[in-house]
Amino acid sequence: MKNLPKKISSQKGFFKPLIAGLVVGIAGIIVFVVLNRPVTQPPSLDTRVPIASPTPIPEIMEEKPRELIEGMPDIPLYPDAVIEKSTKRTIGTDLKYTAHLNVVATPGEIISFYQTELTNNGWTITHVLPNSQQTGEGAIEATKNNTDLHIDLDRHRSDEPTDFVINVFVKNN
After folding, report:
1. Furthest-apart CA atoms within the chain: distance in Å
2. What is the pLDDT of residues 71-130, one digit of tens each?
3. How many percent of the chain have pLDDT more than 90?
4. pTM for the whole structure
5. Cβ-Cβ contacts under 8 Å for 166 (sequence gap 6 or more)
6. What topology does CATH give the domain 59-170?
């Protein structure tokens, strides 16, 4: 009878690692089954009809240094203005012309010139941004037929030329 407790105590030491091994093994099997089962997607609830994406609008850009690009609408240029560059951007059938210029004149003088010249050439002035006479920013907008014109002016110091950009948008609907 003295041997009986020894057998039970040795069996207890045997069962703990066995039970731990079984638990780890079963957990491994569960993980394996879960990770290897086929994934099915639930039926889609999206009832929207797909819309074909529009055909991209072709866009072409041309640039000319120190001169006006061919085809730019006839816009009066401020006397002695220096053309830095000009561009033509074709977007579908519409055109955008841009000319970057500078001149030794105040924003006020340039705005006044364009108000007079554009009006004399059949343009309708639609907006004039108040400007400083010596330095600062200015803008003028005008329209004629299917063409919109926007001129932005910027002069930082009175001893520097005024930079200005002429944007012309031609709509060919």
Report:
1. 128
2. 999 999 999 999 999 999 998 899 999 999 999 998 889 999 999 999 999 999 999 987
3. 51
4. 0.66
5. 75, 97, 98, 99, 101, 149, 150, 151
6. Protein Transport Mog1p; Chain A (3.40.1000)
* Six-digit token string for 163: 């930079």
Regarding beta strands 147-155 and 124-129, do their DSSP bridges make them parallel or antiparallel, or are they unpaired?
Answer: unpaired
| Domain ranges (residues) in the chain | 1-40, 59-170
In this structure, what token pair is assigned to residue 36?
């290897």
Provide DSSP, 42-76.
Answer: PPP---PPP-PPPPPPPEEEEEEETSPPTT----P
Return d(Cα 165, Cα 123) in angstroms, integer: 18
| pLDDT value for 35 | 67
Residue 172 region, left (φ>0) first, then alpha (ψ -120 to 50), else beta?
beta
